[in-house]
């Protein structure tokens, strides 16, 4: 591993947490791309509000991905977020390419946000158990944002 900038964590803990960060990084990048896919292609009543919301959501997801990637490097690892790694390692189902109805995009995005939020909360628990409270806090912060965006998106659903 490259240089470590977080003193007080042993090598095994750092390696475990770097892997955890990268596992979640690929899903957040994948989710960001799904949000942009929806942003570009959605049509229907309420278009402009959802279209603009999704730009803001993508920005927040990119910030979360950046935070996870930087933490991996701080711990002496490598951030692994290339398109090839995301395509190979993301656990999210492929986003449908030929959707246009806002309601369909909302359902697909909400499900993915729920899945990513759950995984990030689980990662927070693992990081805490490993002894890295800072990374656990980082995951907790990111999960709150993912949950909030799941709400922002899901609240646009019929009958929400």
UniProtKB/TrEMBL annotation:
Keywords: Plasmid. GO terms for molecular function: ferric iron binding; oxidoreductase activity, acting on metal ions. Residues 19-155 form the Ferritin/DPS domain. The keyword Lyase does not apply. Pfam families: Ferritin (PF00210). InterPro entries: DPS_DNA-bd (IPR002177), DPS_DNA-bd_CS (IPR023188), Ferritin-like (IPR012347), Ferritin-like_SF (IPR009078), Ferritin_DPS_dom (IPR008331). It comes from the Bacteria. SUPFAM superfamilies: Ferritin-like (SSF47240). The keyword Acetylation does not apply. Belongs to the Dps family. This is Ferritin Dps family protein. It comes from Dinoroseobacter shibae (strain DSM 16493 / NCIMB 14021 / DFL 12).
């Amino acid at each position: 591993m490259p240089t470590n900038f977080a003193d007080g964590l042993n090598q095994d803990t750092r390696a475990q947490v770097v892997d955890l960060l990268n596992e979640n990084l690929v899903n957040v990048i994948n989710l960001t791309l799904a949000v942009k896919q929806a942003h570009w292609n959605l049509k229907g009543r309420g278009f402009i509000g959802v279209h603009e919301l999704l730009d803001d959501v993508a920005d927040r997801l990119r910030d979360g991905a950046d935070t996870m990637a930087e933490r991996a490097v701080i711990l002496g690892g490598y951030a692994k977020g290339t398109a090839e790694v995301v395509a190979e390692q993301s656990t999210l189902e492929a986003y449908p390419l030929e959707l246009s109805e806002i309601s369909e995009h909302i359902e697909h995005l909400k499900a993915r946000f729920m899945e990513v939020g759950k995984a990030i909360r689980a990662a927070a628990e693992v990081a805490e158990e490993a002894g890295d409270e800072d990374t656990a806090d980082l995951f907790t912060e990111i999960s709150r944002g993912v949950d909030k965006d799941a709400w922002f998106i899901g609240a646009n659903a019929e009958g929400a």
